[in-house]
Amino acid sequence: xxxxxxxxxxxxxxxxxxxxxxxxxxxxxxxxxxxxxxxxxxxxxxxxxxxxxxxxxxxxxxxxxxxxxxxxxxxxxxxxxxxxxxxxxxxxxxxxxxxxxxxxxxxxxxxxxxxxxxxxxxxxxxxxxxxxxxxxxxxxxxxxxxxxxxxxxxxxxxxxxxxxxxxxxxxxxxxxxxxxxxxxxxxxxxxxxxxxxxxxxxxxxxxxxxxxxxxxxxxxxxxxxxxxxxxxxxxxxxxxxxxxxxxxxxxxxxxxxxxxxxxxxxxxxxxxxxxxxxxxxxxxxxxxxxxxxxxxxxxx
Length: 300
What we know:
- By secondary structure, the chain is an all-alpha fold.
- The protein has one domain (7-286).
- 76% of the residues lie in helices and 0% in strands.
- It is built from 14 helices and no strands.
- It has helices at 7-20, 22-49, 56-62, 66-97, 109-131, 133-138, 147-156, 158-179, 182-188, 194-200, 205-219, 222-230, 235-275, 280-286.
- Helix 4 packs across helix 13, helix 11 (205-219) runs antiparallel to helix 13 and helix 13 (235-275) crosses helix 14 (280-286).
- The protein is globular.
């Protein structure tokens, strides 16, 4: 009997992997901070050239040329593509690190980055298409009311509406978390789509969601630290804010490490199920794409 994958085990192994590769993680973080610095520098420059209250003719007069506007869109595109490339590189590094290999940039990174951005939008569209009917049905009965009646009904049904939107948020998050397995697949170079990662994670949807909850609970530690820092003076407040910043940055690395661990564990489980004589669905999924033992030994 092949056991299910433990969310706590994945969470703990992610921390171990980060600590084991701490020097590489620091290098990745330095690149991430550099990208953020470029974006913030441009935003600061934009604020000095164009005041917030500049509109119409004032705006036209204050902007040196259209190239500055195009530059703004270029910075946004740079950040989106740069962040996705950074995230895919982290997942690629962590995935191969579990096999004892030290590689930092996946082959064909630009192509994979474009695919990654495309899949980010695709996941958003799929998630919205599936879950959006829940809040729409929740507010459907208010459609024929005038504004006063609608506000009165909303105030009386606040518990019902809270339940509806909570259900919508939970289902959306669960779908997003499960479909996001496509990103380590892209990073590794496996020929996978949303249906493939959905099938390979069959039976682990709730466990993936629990891992995400553990991640968000860890990231939520920054909130009390930041609040307490507001009531402290001197070095105490600075220390708490610094600790909150470290946790926030570590959370970004942890998210990518967690997905690399999950993806590796799910692939191994699929291969073990095939060896144990699993059904045709598990066989086709577990061997689809790459995953050649001669290329990457994941210590089966």
